[in-house]
Hints:
By secondary structure, the protein is of the alpha+beta class. It folds into two domains: 1-34; 37-196, Sandwich (Jelly Rolls). It has helices at residues 3-34, 58-67, 179-183; strands at residues 40-42, 45-47, 77-82, 96-101, 106-115, 129-131, 143-148, 158-161, 168-177, 192-196. The chain has a six-stranded antiparallel sheet with strand order 1-2-3-9-5-6. It is elongated, with a radius of gyration of 22 Å. The model is unreliable at 31-37 (pLDDT under 50).
Amino acid sequence: xxxxxxxxxxxxxxxxxxxxVVLGAASAIAVLRRGALSHEAVGPWRVNLLAGSPxxxxxxxxxxxxxxxxxxxxxxxxxxxxxxxxxxxxxxxRCSYRVAGRPPPARWWSVTAYAEDFFLFDAEGRxxxxxxxxxxxxxxxxxxxxTGPRPPxxxxxxxxxxPGDRGLLLTLRVYQPEARLHDAPxxxxxxTIEPQGACR
Length: 200
């Protein structure tokens, strides 16, 4: 075998190895991005009981690292994510939804709207969500806000703009939850997510 043919074989082998590494890494990332975190449902919201805990397995930790939404330990923050309304229909940014509930038992809380890629919308007025400081509570102690591409008819109702036609997910963050919620995440009184008007 000549030196030239050995070199050619080495180059071909290196190219195949590089392709295998790239395809392997890409497929692993795709699986982690598409794979759902193990979760439990409470109303339209889902919570991962392992995320942020020392008991989290390697796949949970990898998905947390890639998604970036579930980064803190559970005693610091708990995360509930909704990708469907209270009737189980997938959330879409082109639709309007009424989100209503009681503030969770915690030091602070927030609900933020994200597109399906986990990035914030290019929202009018940089309104990305509501929180324990900005939510207006009714006499019964409940908050209400509306998401959608257009503001609600009632100007007094808080609005979280979701422009475009994309997947929508809502993340409820509960900061420094009280022990009763920390110890039993499924005891959350889940905010409802109801579509407003017709949406195709």
